[in-house]
């Protein structure tokens, strides 16, 4: 599948934003931020919302008719894309409630905690809807499998936890529990991605040139002549292939940047303390986000669509 | 609405039956499709850089040629590919705006160009690569089964079939109601063992492909009678040679 830059940026940024908002909301709802200054709330909610909104704006760049974007909220009964849009829009309400209650009015209990919990749950639900868009596409075997949804959730939680951990350090209130959660998410993310990549390498798609043409009874089926000498939309959008050696290099880069580097920085912060810890914790989200960008690019580039079987692909 | 009623027993399911045994791969159906539809329901079928080497545009019908089998058993099969108007069209389900829809009355899958936002998700959901994005208009386009021909009372009745069917010089394309077991297309599918493409994905395509018929005698078959040897006229008597020339005129 063609890796559209706007969609890759969108899922990475909105994943990190929703991860940050979900964790902030959950910790707040549990009373964990009762003693934190409102300025911390301003930064956490502000950064989360900026990442989410920036991602959503980026995703509309991918549309042919962005001026009609609001129509996309109407088909929640069947479409995961519509559900994602509707959940994202709905999530802004409790996020705004949490922002007003905590930051503007200085309240840390009662209905503000409820708003925090609602913001967290809707953030998680939105990430789930994003993952389900890919998970439900049967023509793409590398997307339509049980590995995809957990990866989206864990990577959102990981990037969100790294951002919240960085903010906590910058506000002089580092939390061991938060750092431990972020570290755990890094390990889980690396494990899930390795498992996903093994699936991509080993599990064959159900469709073949034989089933695509219905000619398998005659023997092996292969393309003799394409329909035209030039290119077309389906070939560009669905026929994108990344060279195996490039994919392996990028997998290593995604693994090192996305999971190993932030985990090491978290360990450095935990072991050294002081100003070094603050610096290490603050820069930890940077390689993580770069790694997730590479991971998302690969998620598209390594995905193969069954329509490519009509254009000479021997496997989908 | 992208939620749709799944066709029930006896519902009309208009579609195509394509005979892979007789298709000669001439691309006339694709050309006539482009010709009709570029001013039809989903007009225009935009071409980008039409006069350059990188010409690229929207087509609803594309003709691939495949090889199947090995050696003497191998055959070339020309394979026209267009929207199959599936009974369970995921392209319709994933549409976030309701622009993609499946008609209840005849099962045709269409796109409303006025409400499509061009998110392209429907083209990802179609395993057959039948949907093509119009980069100029920013909306998705696809085969309409010539909805503007098949009910068009301004056309003579014989022409009320999809453009691809009307133009096929080999008679390889057939149009009809595949929901009616007694229709000529349904009987053809029954008799020839019509194939469903990618049945493993469960989209239940309505269009069917008739497989190439089995070979009867192979290449040449070795059964045809050998020709008589030609007469060596140079060796003939001049009078016979003159007679041969006269009779050969």
Please tell me about this protein's structure.
The complex is a heterodimer of chains A (316) and B (249). Chain A has 316 residues and is an all-alpha fold. Chain A folds into 2 domains: 1-136; 147-316, no CATH class. Chain A contains 11 helices and 1 strand; from the N terminus they run αααααααβαααα. Chain A has helices at residues 5-29, 38-60, 80-104, 111-135, 148-170, 176-202, 209-213, 233-238, 244-272, 274-283, 285-301; one strand at residues 221-225. The model of chain A has no long low-confidence stretch (mean pLDDT 96). Chain B has 249 residues and is α+β, with helices and mostly antiparallel strands. Chain B is 19% helix and 18% strand. Chain B has helices spanning 28-37, 90-94, 121-125, 147-150, 163-167, 184-192, 238-247; strands spanning 14-19, 47-48, 56-57, 62-68, 75-81, 100-102, 109-111, 132-134, 139-141, 173-177, 208-210. A 3-stranded mixed beta sheet of chain B has the order 10-1-11. Chain B has a two-stranded antiparallel sheet with strand order 2-3. In chain B, strand 4 and strand 5 form a beta hairpin. The termini of chain B are far apart. At the A-B interface, helix 3, helix 7, strand 1 and helix 8 of A face strand 3, strand 4, strand 5, helix 2 and helix 3 of B. Strand 1 (221-225) of chain A pairs antiparallel with strand 4 of chain B.
């Amino acid at each position: 599948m063609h890796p559209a830059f706007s969609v890759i940026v969108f899922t990475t940024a909105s994943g990190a934003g929703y991860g940050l908002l979900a964790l902030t909301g959950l910790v707040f709802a549990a009373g964990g931020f009762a003693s934190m200054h409102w300025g911390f709330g301003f930064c956490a909610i502000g950064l989360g919302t900026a990442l989410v909104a920036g991602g959503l704006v980026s995703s509309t760049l991918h549309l042919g008719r962005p001026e009609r974007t609001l129509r996309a909220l109407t088909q929640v009964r069947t479409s995961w894309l519509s559900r994602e849009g509707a959940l994202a829009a709905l999530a802004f309400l409790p996020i705004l409630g949490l922002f007003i209650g905590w930051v503007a009015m200085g309240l840390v209990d009662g209905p503000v905690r409820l708003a925090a919990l609602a913001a967290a749950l809707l953030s998680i639900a939105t990430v789930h809807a994003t993952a389900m868009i890919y998970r439900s596409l049967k023509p793409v075997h590398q997307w339509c499998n049980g590995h995809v949804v957990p990866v989206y959730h864990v990577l959102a939680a990981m990037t969100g936890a790294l951002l919240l951990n960085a903010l906590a350090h910058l506000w002089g209130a580092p939390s061991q529990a938060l750092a431990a959660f972020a570290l755990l998410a890094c390990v889980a993310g690396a494990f899930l991605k390795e498992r996903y990549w093994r699936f991509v390498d080993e599990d064959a798609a159900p469709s073949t040139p034989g089933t695509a043409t219905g000619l398998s009874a005659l023997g092996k089926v292969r393309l003799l002549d394409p329909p035209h000498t030039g290119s077309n939309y389906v070939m560009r959008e669905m026929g994108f292939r990344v060279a195996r050696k490039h994919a392996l290099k990028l997998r290593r880069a995604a693994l090192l940047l996305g999971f190993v580097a932030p985990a090491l920085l978290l360990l450095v912060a935990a072991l050294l303390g002081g100003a070094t810890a603050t610096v290490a914790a603050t820069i930890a989200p940077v390689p993580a986000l770069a790694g997730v960008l590479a991971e998302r690019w690969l998620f598209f580039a390594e995905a193969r669509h069954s329509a490519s079987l009509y254009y000479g692909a021997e496997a989908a | 609405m992208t939620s749709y009623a799944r066709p029930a027993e006896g519902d009309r399911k208009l579609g195509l039956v394509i005979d892979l045994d007789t298709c000669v791969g001439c691309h006339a159906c694709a050309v006539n499709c482009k010709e009709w539809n570029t001013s039809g329901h989903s007009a225009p079928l935009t071409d980008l850089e039409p006069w350059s080497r990188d010409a690229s545009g929207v087509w609803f019908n594309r003709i691939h040629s495949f090889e199947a089998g090995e050696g003497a058993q191998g055959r070339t099969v020309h394979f026209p590919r267009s929207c199959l108007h599936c009974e369970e069209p995921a392209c319709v389900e994933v549409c976030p705006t309701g622009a993609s829809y499946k008609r209840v009355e005849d099962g045709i899958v269409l796109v409303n160009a006025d409400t499509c936002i061009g998110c392209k998700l429907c083209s990802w959901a179609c395993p057959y690569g039948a949907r093509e994005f119009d980069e100029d208009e920013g909306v998705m386009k696809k085969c309409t089964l010539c909805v503007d021909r098949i009910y068009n009372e301004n056309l003579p009745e014989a022409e009320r079939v999809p453009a691809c069917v009307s133009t096929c010089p080999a008679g390889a394309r057939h149009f009809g109601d595949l929901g009616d077991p007694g229709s000529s297309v349904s009987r053809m599918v029954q008799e020839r063992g019509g194939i469903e493409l990618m049945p493993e994905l469960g989209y239940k395509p309505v269009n069917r492909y008739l497989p190439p018929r089995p070979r009867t005698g192979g290449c040449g078959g070795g059964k045809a009678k050998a020709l008589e040897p030609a007469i060596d006229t140079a060796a003939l008597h001049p009078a016979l040679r003159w007679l041969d020339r006269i009779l050969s005129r």
